[in-house]
Amino acid sequence: MRYLKNVLYFIGLPVLLVVMWWALTLGPTNFFVPKPLVLAQTFWDVWVGERFWTDFVPSIQRLVIGLVATIVLGVIFGVLIGSFRWLRSFTEPMLEFFRAIPPPVLVPLLMLLVGINDQMKIIVIVSGAIWPVLLNTIEGVRAVDPVLSDTSKTYKITGFPRLRYLVLPGASPQIMTGVRQSTSIALILMVISEMFGSSSGLGFTIVLFQRGFAIPEMWSGIVVLGLVGIALSLISQFIERRVLRWYNGLKEVQHDG
Fold first, then answer.
1. Does residue 2 carry a pLDDT above 80?
2. What are the TM regions of this chain, as residue ranges (predicted)?
């Protein structure tokens, strides 16, 4: 019963919006707003076929590689910077400088330095999506329980065991918050990177349809991006529940107490 209730909550608003859309487009409609059935048919014709392999799959590959690189680099550098006060003070001005630069501004520069290829698109994703993971990891490492930290020093728990059993678990709630934020940023940057000098991908295809006034096809690409966003959100929530199972259980115990 609870599962059915959650499903109804999940699909309730989308179904309501589609019904409203259908009702508002019963008569003559604007050229730029296709009817739901027209869009559904266009979605099937465009994306269930060759474009799935030539545009959708390459975009997802870039997105996954960019996200993995973002998380790995963000956590590694975040742990290093958060563990040493002198390193944090040394790098803070430079981190603030680069964080203030909008990632889309780097696209033309990266096109010149790296070239118009998949590496450029992945670098664009990492350059913008890494900040939530990096900064949340730094703050998470800094906020590790000082009592536990002193205890680990007393028992001479250092190096990798300390990192594995104290630092990463203690910082994991904030790390997962950063990962969740970076996921949506990575999707946006994937689309932006493909709009510049690309010959494949979701961003390229949407712009191609828009320039050719293929309005239903353009909307179908936007729907694909929305579905990808929902899938990423569900995956990140699932992983977060698994990683933070101990943390959520601890909060429930404290709440019950």
1. no
2. 7-24, 63-84, 96-116, 122-138, 185-206, 218-239
Residue with tokens 């933070």: 244
For tokens 């709009």, the residue is 195
Q: How many CA atoms lie within 13 A of 226 on its CB side?
A: 8
Instruction: Report the CATH number of the 35-256 domain.
Output: 1.10.3720.10
Q: Where are the domains of the chain?
A: 35-256
pLDDT at 239 over 80: yes
* Residue keyed to tokens 């929305």: 226
> pLDDT digit string (tens) for 147-168?
877 788 787 778 888 888 888 8
User: What pLDDT is attached to residue 161?
Assistant: 84
